[in-house]
## 1
Amino acid sequence: MNETDKSGTLFADEGSTVICGIDEAGRGPLAGPLVVVGLIMHSPVENLADSKSMSEKRREELYDKIVESSRFHIVLFDSQAIDREGLSACMRAALEEIKELMSAEDVTLLFDGNSRFGVRGINTMVKADTKIAEVSAASIVAKVTRDRLMKRYASDYPLYGFEKHKGYGTKAHMEAIDRYGYSPIHRRSFKRASKKRERGLF
């Protein structure tokens, strides 16, 4: 079991010298894909932090630096897969795939949050994306990857404003759903709580 000191430094399992940070983007939106990233850094990148705390411009700047400084694997599930399999099953499959492709004797797999979705060999840490560089980097890669996809979808389905809200349940997004119905990239299994509020089912 991994532990952290007060400074947030990860003490890897005995014999482990490499951290594979894992994080996701798109667990809660009403439309678009779930993106999960496992990432191992080969050289440090300065000023990493949780992707949600950064501006889009800053994430894009760091993304290029991270890509040059790391090895990573991206797992993507579209809205149809999420509706068909369920979000938890998709998360579990993503973690299994990353474990298969990124694990080794000297690698500690560290996932942001408090659930490993039943996958053995995955370590978890709450707010790891604010404490561990590899998880912060995975968070940024996942977020930028998903945001870029949502901008592409915005050109295919211009009535919904995906380039602005990225599929999350904003007032403008819900009003668009009320007016135009669901697009092919909406998650039908994420039920409407009311006309003024959306809630993803986890």
## 2
Amino acid sequence: MCETIDAVRLLSQAVETSLLNRFPAFVFRIPGDDAFYWGACTRESLDVLSGSELPETPEGFLFAPFDVKTLSAFFFPVKAVRAESVEIDALKRIGAVSVIEDKPIGRDDISYGQYKNQVENLVEETFCSSLKKAVLSRTVTLDRPAVSDMQLVLRLAAKYPSAFVSWVHLPGVGRWIGATPETLLDYDGSVLSTMALAGTRRAGSKEAWGEKEMEEQQIVTDYIVNALEKEGFATEVGERATRVAGQVEHLCTPISISGDFDRRRVSDILNVLHPTPAVGGYPKALAIDWIRRVEQHDRDYYGGYLGPVSGREIRLFVNLRCMEVNDTLLKLYVGGGLTAQSRPEDEWNETEAKAQTLLSVINE
């Protein structure tokens, strides 16, 4: 118990030091693990990446946007250490060369009426074009209560043990906190795993899954399998099952490929996978174009991916159930997949339920 208390105390001090001294840092907890990991570096040592690529640097932490063509990804070229091994005195010697202001957070929230029009726009589009699915997101912006970044992280970790919980601070770029249920890519040096996670309803529902949710999830599964097989991989597809993620549950199909892949080959696979129809849509280019035209906010790093890289082991997660934060506001990002069968009220309620994953810890 004392070790846990010391780890939390050190991690809280490290986060506050990063915020005070304005240097990049990250915190994460792997699903099913009790340990928190920490890493930090100077702004000058950050690797800035373009496209869906992995760096040659053997170890570090990757933070990438939804739209890799318009925003940069960042790689922290440092080994993540367990929270109890954080050296606060060493962190105090890391400082920004110049003062970097917090990125301003705009209030881009929309009303139900506006959202309804967007859903109806998509349904009409599916009848007029080859668009089969698009993921529509919206924001929920709140005045920040008296709760620290680390308190939010700890609450999320305690409430959602099967989620990848994270905190990322990039001065001038943004500060993000999240608890995502979705693995994008998990490679252990011999087997590369991913998942088709889509279709949503409230957790604990007793009835059978609806046709709309089954179709939505199958679109994601088919896309991933076909994309990997087109690249020459033999895929292994597991059984579809229900996966609980906070206040909601999803349909999930595990998919894997085997092989001895170098970083360049894993980057190729990453480029094929991101963004999957679970966060973008299908066909990919058509869905992303629709998102750019219709959504009133910039996604930035929502729907992107993040996670640790350690030698041959690469664990990347989709940045969902996340919020962008500064000292005065919290901006939650929530979304849902739309198809020709979508009904505005149902889709709105789905995003409301997803928002509760974050609201439930903010309002504790």
## 3
Amino acid sequence: MERGLEKFQTLAALGEQYGCPWVEYQEPLTGPQFLLWRLDMEQLRAEGWFPRAVADGRATVIATAPSSALAAQIRETLGVREVEFQVTLPDDLIRIIEHNRDLNPGFPPTADRTPLAKVRAYLAGRRSLFAHYRTLLAKSRTGLAFIRTGLSFITIALLFLCLVDAGYYLFLEAPLLLSGVIMVYDGLKWYLPARAIYATLPPCVDTGATGGISVLEAYNEEIVPEFRRSGVVSGAAGLRAGWTSMSPVMRRRYLASDRTDLAEERTVLACFRTRMAKVRTGLAFTRTGFAFISLGLALLHQFQASRWLAFDLGLIGVGAIMALEGFFWYFRGRRAGVEGLASVREKGGMSTIWDYFFPHSHVLPGPDRNPMTLPVRSSHAPGIWATTGVALERTVLAERRNVMARLRTVMVRARTGFAFIRTGLNLFLIGAAFLLLFDDGGGLGWTVFSYSMMAAGLFLVADGFAWSIPAERTRRQFPYCYGDMEIAIPDYGAPARFWKTVVFSNDEG
């Protein structure tokens, strides 16, 4: 072939040299599936042979260099009496083996649709774990509401006891005190499990999708599945660029890889949403803490060195711990909101599956820029795309789920921004109240404390608006928040103009 011979001439010369028929790679050329499952395909590739058929003690084998030694080795491996050789070129043998492993040219074994399905299963499990964490965090925020309500009951009961002593009011004070203690205990039971979540949260790591020219792989599967990306496959970009010239099975392999990359993006976005839920829980804890600090300081200012001094100082101490704990969650989780929005913007600007099937004429190569057409004609029989059409629809649906996941992430970021605003307004109003309350001699310490709270509140309000405004802009760009949504139901056995549609009304929920 280096001297300029055509491929078929080279194959004919090889067949004449070895005295056997010659074959070249074609997709229908497959081996016995049950036999291939128990053979080491990498070893076959290294030894240069592939079993095409085995029956009645006789094996038909494709090889690049037939020989008596190779025949003896094959007889021992397959347990047959006779071996009939067919010769092929090394590149063709590699493609035969790759095709039987469900791989496109040059891709590693992890690009097989079965390992990719396993990776997607692991990613689905990871998303379920994040959903479980978000449920726990929502439950912990409800627990914090219990704690705030319970401590309010306790405070009211103790204030009554302080102002009017016991006496007949004990019938009011005792139920309030007991109810408050029960609610605080119940709230702590709901809240404490959420504190340990950060230690178990997997990192929000995006391996970086490459448009199907590298493979997402799972490792450390026996303990906790982790994910990494293979190197860029040589020639994969050029192969994918010729999408319309690929066979249906080759397209299905790329679509399986696309769905895996989309599953990874959804998992990473779920991780960001979970960390932002942690931020909201921390801010709820901060608001609760500052409320108790304010209550304790107000009581201390009003009653000063009374017999309830220990109670007042206790409120201040507990509130300070709660506020510090909440801000610790805020600073650790704020990064998730920044990275989440950056990920949404990056993924939103990447090519979609429709860019391969229906590329815009202005992005096509060539001087005439004629758009590529689908390999479907009006003369074709129904079902011409078969499983490839189903794989395409599954990939398109996965992409739609990703679009909605991006929108959810942006809206969660906005909701977290609103939590910033609520917390900031809370701090600002508390600081302003103290500034007015202690205006008649509170001293420099009270003044600095009040202005510090007001400044911290204004910062949180500004930060909250910075998080919520981009979300409002994004919401207007998506049709999933208002109005009706119409989706076509593809039928690849009929022209597109005959496809039916289904309408989802926003009014119907």
## 4
Amino acid sequence: MGDSAEITHFMDLKACDPAQVVLRTGCRFDREQNQYEVRIWGHPYIVDLDEHKIYPKNSQTVADYALMDLFILYFLMKSKNLPVSGQWVSEKDIPGGAGFFRGPHTIPTDLLAKRFSDDLVVFAGVCKKLGGEKLNLADASFSFSITPLIPVAVLYWKGDEDFPGQVKLLFDKTIQDHLPLDIIFCLACAICYRIAKTPADSKQII
């Protein structure tokens, strides 16, 4: 991160009361270093307020996309300390989502359908490498704890002679209380990109 708009997000976070951020998100704050430590997708990340940088604490952990960085900043700034509802919803079920998640804001789940080409064994292997927990939905499905407050599910339906395979993301209903639509879109894109780019035989810690 580094452009003026992104630095503005860091400045907005810097203006937040760290005690309240910690209370809402369960993250840690190092006053001496002026850094937050937050677990994202099961691994610790450092948010450096002075250097305007987000990076993995563990050198073996894969750095995420810039879209995930934007999600992390908004999560720290805006999320609420709400229990997970346990009710999955699509992006179209989120208030305003039916009009927003279309055209340029269509979630790129087609990347996953193309990547796995109905090979549910490979799909499951990649999801497990990324810490996915198996669900009993669609033909194959896994949930991911992006943060303890924000789980996301990825569902895969195999294609047939009439319809190609289809992949869909579902969110816990409370996501509408945590994030605006554009940041939900950033998160969804980052999830699709990461799953699509993870090698099935990767031995890298992710």
